[in-house]
Amino acid sequence: MDDLSTIRSEALGAVEQAADLAALDAARVAALGKKGSVTGLMKTLGALAPEQRREFGARVNQLKSEIEAALDARKSALSATALAAKLVNEKVDVSLPTRPEGQGTLHPIGQVMDELAAIFGEMGFSWAEGPDIEDDWHNFTALNIPPDHPARQMQDTFYLPPRADGTPMVLRTHTSPVQARTMLDKGVQKMLADGGSLRIIVPGRTYRIDNDATHTPMFHQVEGLVIDRTTHMGHLKGCLVDFCRAFFEVDDLPLRFRPSYFPFTEPSAEVDIGCSWKDGELRIGAGDSWLEILGSGMVHPNVIANCGLDPAVYQGFAFGMGIDRIAMLKYGINDLRSFFDSDLRWLRHYGFSALEWPSLTGGLGR
Ligand code: 2NL
Asked: Does residue 27 contact residue 11 with C-beta atoms inside 8 Å?
């Protein structure tokens, strides 16, 4: 009997004094665990006479219930205290100002692509894209580029392992294969046959084996293409004059069209914009110098035919320019390679707000 009351007061005392949940669990194990004091009493029951066993067993069971109730009560009390302490210590003042979040910026190349979309979109052009990995036919053959053309040489073009059927594969050296794929599209051909006109710009990544201060192995190009039955060189001139004046935001920007040569256009013209140099700094606008910024021409009849259209019926113009280069000129960036360094300080300085979408009416540049 004495044994029972000692065990009772020890067990209940340990429960009452448990200062945290770990101590409470230790008290539980000491009384009710496998080797606990109450469990020990249970084990003695078997040796007692039936009469005694019933009487003593009832008292042990009652003690067990009493300890369990004490454990529960103490657990609730400890949890309530812990919660109260948490509420005091982890109080949040919702009236405090928020911490400033770092704002990302748009890369100047993405910004210039958005500006191109705004300007050419206004002129009725759609945006077209295609694969960076091309087959040799779409990248070269369709575009009337002869087998001995320097662009085809191993030192200029990234050649990839051929397809299973032997098709030679390349990283596209220009975005023109996308125009070829668009002209070959059956839906586009139907639209043209129905008297419509095709007007697309194709911005994207292009690749050439070249790496120095003014060339990177990956660079960005935008090409444009217009195809219908009547578009002529005058439209080419008007389109490019309007584009250059809008892009560089100089209303009277002079343009100079110089005869040139590209395998995919005939006739071909390179386009210069007026500029001047003062104290080593470039100013775009009427001046005493010229700056070459794009290539253009009337689409070669061979290209029209290669792309599944009748050159006796369809004609049009095309142009191409380097996005990195026009971005450098417009935003005063002097090192091409800085575009691809992923230097956060550079991006913070030269980047653009994602919330200021360029438009002809709302403003194009900074
Ligand atoms: C340049 C010159 C040019 C084209 C690209 C083109 C595409 C097709 C048909 C005909 Cl599908 N032409 N593209 C035409 C003239 C010039 O790019 O200096 N680019 C950086």
From this structure: yes
The C-alpha atoms of residue 45 and residue 52 are separated, in whole angstroms, by: 9
pLDDT in tens, 334-346: 999 999 999 999 9
Task: Answer yes or no: is pLDDT of 213 > 90.
Answer: no
Cβ contact 336:108 at 8 Å: no
**Cβ-contact 230, 217 below 8 angstroms:** no
CA of 18 to the centre of ligand 1 (A): 83
For residue 180, give the amino acid letter: A
Candidate from 176, 181, 198, 268 with most ligand 1 atoms within 8 A of CB, to mutate: 176
Contacts 24+ apart (CB under 8 A), 5-14: 7/31, 7/37, 7/38, 7/41, 7/63, 8/63, 8/66, 8/67, 10/37, 11/37, 11/38, 11/63, 11/67, 11/70, 12/66, 12/67, 12/70
- Prior bond of 50 cis (ω within 30°): no
Non-local (6+) Cβ contacts of 358 within 8 A are: 111, 114, 115, 118, 364, 365
pTM of the model: 0.75
Would you mind telling me the total number of residues written for the chain in this entry? 366
CA separation for the pair 335, 97 (Å, rounded): 40
Question: What is the Rg, in whole angstroms, of the alpha carbon atoms belonging to the chain?
Answer: 40
